[in-house]
Amino acid sequence: MMCRVYGVSRDGYYSWKRRGKCQRRYEDEWLSDEISHVYESSGKLYGSPKVHESLKRKGIYTGQKRIARIMRENGQKARVAKVYKRDPGRKAHFTSIPNRQLQSKVDDCNQVWVGDLTYLKVGRENRYLAVVMDKHSRRVVGWSYGRKKNTELTLSAFRQAVRNRDISEGLVFHSDRGAEYAAFTYQEKLVKYGVIQSMNRPGKMNDNAVMESFFHSLKAERIHDQVFRSDSDLRGAISGYVHFYNQSRLHSSLGYMSPVEFEVN
What we know:
The protein is of the alpha/beta class. The chain has helices spanning 2-6, 10-19, 23-41, 48-57, 64-73, 151-164, 179-182, 184-192, 209-223, 231-247, 259-264, and strands at residues 112-122, 125-134, 139-146, 172-175, 196-199. The protein folds into two domains: 2-73, no CATH class; 101-264, Nucleotidyltransferase, domain 5 (2-Layer Sandwich).
């Protein structure tokens, strides 16, 4: 009856059963196990491009479309999320500081740093994260977490970055035009270290796209759909993600290397 429903002859059906699985199907099953191992090892974060690159590093060469198909069949997909950046109370642009990173040549580390802050949640309460990143290698070199969105938070992240890196006079530090970066105390700290301040052009949020990309990755890959009940839980999640992001996460913009690997090479 089922053969009639599907328009298949009885002889054709039993012939197909006798043949069993084709060689390609056996290969797909083996490849599925390898893909699952990479996918699980990434914390279920990687999509097919990064899985493809990871398999190449293991000496497994196959097409990215084939990997994407197998991942779809297994319900495996990269985590994504919309990122909303809350920025209440901003009233004025600080137009005296230009976007100097646009003219800065970036072919090595510690030439241009970028910084920004975003908000996260502990229960229903806001918490804030300030980050400093090396634009060349995309490595997070400093970060600070706190209950208040203020200059002390952004300064704390910058001070940690200075402790972690050997900087020389002429380093450009770029951020948006938030009051936390335009404050005189922040500007004085940059001058003390011989750092040149740079800010987004008014109305040009994409001027700091590198930092926006990091916050998107953090929220999509580690924060989204998670409920944090304490500061220690959220701080631990951030710390773990920063370590993963610097040491292990493959970046397409870095030739599918991690920031630490990129700096070594």
